[in-house]
Write a structure and sequence with these properties.
The protein is α/β, with parallel strands linked by helices and about 210 residues long. It is about 25% helix and about 20% strand.
Length: about 210
């Protein structure tokens, strides 16, 4: 089966800790000088993510996982479907390859786009005969997201779904106030920082 698809291991390698620096939030000179807190620390991987990662590492289809790292959720374009926890498994099924995905919430309109993108990605790699299956048990939760995903959200000015107080992604302050339950997408809420006054989105924690 060696020639069934072209392989690329490079996609995943780019997903390591993001080193984009602080350009996205150049501090406002006067006010941020008063703020002593630093950027919030990103917690370690969750057990849920560690289990996903172990399954991926043990899979004979690691190249396909790496290939699918190019597929993003249109609602959260910052993140790959792997980092978001939508891509559950790639395995050999009865009639070929089975790709299992879990929607972030039921009726998620992004899922049709994700399915098309997965299919295009596999076809482009020369992979024939596959099916994409939706699985909602166990349901998606933010615990399935990778630490890299949380770091990437934070680097983009979005407070990630981590335990504890919602901290300002710009200055790290926990003195934040909810402005609106809904932001640009339903999975985010809008906050404002009381320390540096920056408005920001929080990717809501879903357990
Ligand atoms: Zn702040």
């Amino acid at each position: 089966m060696g020639g069934r698809w072209r392989t690329s291991r490079s996609a995943y390698r780019t997903l390591g800790p993001h080193a984009r620096g602080n350009a996205a939030f150049a501090p406002q000179p006067s006010r941020s000088a008063l703020v002593t807190a630093s950027k919030p620390a990103i917690p370690l991987e969750t057990p849920e993510y560690a289990a996903r990662w172990a399954r991926r590492q043990a899979s004979p289809h690691e190249e396909l996982y790496a290939l699918l790292d190019a597929v993003r959720d249109p609602e959260v374009p910052e993140l790959s479907i792997w980092d978001l926890g939508v891509l559950r498994e790639v395995r050999e099924g009865g009639g070929g390859l089975t790709v299992t995905i879990t929607p972030t919430y039921s009726g998620c309109p992004a899922l049709a786009v994700i399915r098309e993108d997965i299919a295009a990605c596999l076809r482009d790699a020369g992979c024939q005969g596959f099916e994409i299956v939706e699985e909602t048990r166990p349901p998606w939760s933010t615990a399935l997201m990778s630490r890299a995903a949380c770091a990437q959200l934070q680097a983009g000015g979005i407070a990630p779904p981590v335990p504890g107080a919602v901290r300002c992604p710009a200055c790290g302050s926990a003195e934040t106030v909810l402005v609106s339950e809904f932001a640009s997408t339903a999975c985010k809420a809008h906050y404002r920082c009381r320390s540096c006054l920056e408005p920001f989105d929080h990717f809501k924690t879903l357990e």
